[in-house]
Amino acid sequence: MTSMNRYHQWLCNSRMWARAVEKDLLPWALEDVPLGADTLEIGPGYGATTRVLARRTGGRLSVLEVDGGSAERLRAEYGDRVDVVHGDGCAMPLPDGRFDAVLCFTMLHHVPSPRQQDQLFAEAFRVLRPGGVFAGCDGLAGWGFRLIHLRDTYVPVPPRTLPDRLRAAGFPTTDVSLRKDNFRFRAVRP
Question: Considering only CA atoms, which of 40, 41, 51 is closest in space to residue 13?
Answer without folding.
Answer: 51
